[in-house]
């Protein structure tokens, strides 16, 4: 989405948090398909609740119990579901799945997570940053703020932060050990967007880049589906753990974010995630509001 579109959705998310029933674009109720290739807690409950609050009815399906990917093309599935529902929400693996389904679908498709990107989480995080750092200015106040992400740079959250934060005009630095840094294609996409907004996108292995940051973010060192690699990752990632000393390098008033689930003692110390700078549960709540805003915006502008 464009910088203006993203800002519009974030402003709508704030409105819908103030009045959870201010918009009812799914009144009827209209139905929304919520599809899961991967297990989920926050995505499942936030979308189910959000669709209901928009006046709709969520039809939740585990794709393993359907014909999706078992001979039937995603294009045909998209065409079929479009006859039943007003939108499709999908948590899947390969990002190309969305492209294939979109070829047949005639309703909006929302990426609720793929191996490459997690845009709904990114929107919720930006909403949380606005609430804490620039509540009066709103999305415009994000420009010039600096966020750092520590940990696995080659995952969907790092990719989403680079692109989404740059779109908002925020400076974003990904701090990862050598061999675990973001793929060039996502860095280039983020820097292209940063060129439009005046933001900066940096990648480094130096934890000194945390100094003065307004937002400190991390994520699990072992993404879903990579559990067998967990033991091999602890040694290179341990210097990137967000503990009290790491947070102490950030600016006064800095906040800590984590998309959850978190593993205390690994990517983050308990003293941080359970401490006064942590906003992880506000962040989790904002999944509801940001996703409602995204869905309402898509339905009202399609």
UniProtKB/TrEMBL annotation:
L-ornithine binds at residues 156, 219, 223-224. Residues 2-131 form the Aspartate/ornithine carbamoyltransferase carbamoyl-P binding domain. One of its GO terms (molecular function) is amino acid binding. One of its GO terms (biological process) is citrulline biosynthetic process. One of its GO terms (cellular component) is cytoplasm. It holds the Pfam family OTCace. Signal peptide: none annotated. InterPro entries: Asp/Orn_carbamoyltranf_P-bd, Asp/Orn_carbamoylTrfase, Asp/Orn_carbamoylTrfase_sf, Asp_carbamoyltransf_Asp/Orn-bd, Orn/put_carbamltrans, OTCase_ArgI. It comes from the Bacteria. Residues 144-298 form the Aspartate/ornithine carbamoyltransferase Asp/Orn-binding domain. It is found in: Cytoplasm. Its EC number is 2.1.3.3. Carbamoyl phosphate binds at residues 40-43, 67, 91, 118-121, 259-260, 287. It catalyses: carbamoyl phosphate + L-ornithine = L-citrulline + phosphate + H(+). Pathway: Amino-acid biosynthesis; L-arginine biosynthesis; L-arginine from L-ornithine and carbamoyl phosphate: step 1/3. Keywords: Cytoplasm, Transferase. Belongs to the aspartate/ornithine carbamoyltransferase superfamily. OTCase family. HAMAP family: OTCase (MF_01109). PANTHER family: ORNITHINE CARBAMOYLTRANSFERASE, MITOCHONDRIAL, ORNITHINE TRANSCARBAMYLASE, MITOCHONDRIAL. This is Ornithine carbamoyltransferase.
């Amino acid at each position: 989405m464009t910088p203006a579109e993203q800002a519009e959705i974030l402003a709508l998310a704030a409105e819908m948090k103030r009045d959870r029933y201010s918009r009812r674009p799914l009144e009827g109720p209209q139905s929304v398909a919520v599809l899961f290739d991967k297990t989920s807690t926050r995505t499942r409950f936030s979308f189910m609740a959000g669709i209901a609050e928009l006046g709709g009815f969520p039809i939740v399906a585990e794709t393993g119990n359907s014909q999706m990917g078992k001979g039937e093309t995603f294009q045909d599935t998209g065409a079929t579901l479009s006859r039943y529902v007003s939108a499709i929400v999908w948590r899947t693996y390969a990002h190309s799945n969305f492209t294939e389904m979109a070829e047949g679908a005639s309703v909006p498709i929302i990426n609720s997570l793929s191996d490459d990107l997690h845009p709904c989480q990114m929107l919720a995080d930006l909403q949380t940053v606005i609430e804490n750092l620039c509540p009066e200015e709103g999305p415009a106040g994000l420009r010039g703020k600096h966020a750092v992400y520590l940990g696995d740079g080659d995952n969907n959250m790092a990719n989403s932060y680079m692109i989404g934060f740059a779109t908002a005009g925020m400076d974003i630095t990904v701090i990862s050990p050598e061999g675990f840094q973001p793929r060039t294609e996502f860095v280039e996409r983020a820097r292209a967007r940063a060129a439009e907004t005046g933001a900066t996108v940096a990648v480094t292995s130096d934890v000194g880049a945390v100094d003065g940051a307004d937002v400190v973010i991390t994520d699990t060192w072992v993404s879903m589906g990579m559990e067998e690699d967990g033991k091999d990752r602890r040694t290179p990632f341990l210097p990137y753990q967000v503990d009290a000393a790491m947070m102490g390098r950030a600016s006064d008033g800095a906040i800590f974010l984590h998309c959850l689930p978190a593993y205390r003692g690994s990517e983050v110390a308990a003293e941080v995630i359970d401490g006064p700078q942590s906003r992880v549960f506000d962040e989790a709540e904002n999944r509801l509001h940001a996703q409602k805003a995204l869905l309402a915006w898509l339905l009202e502008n399609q």
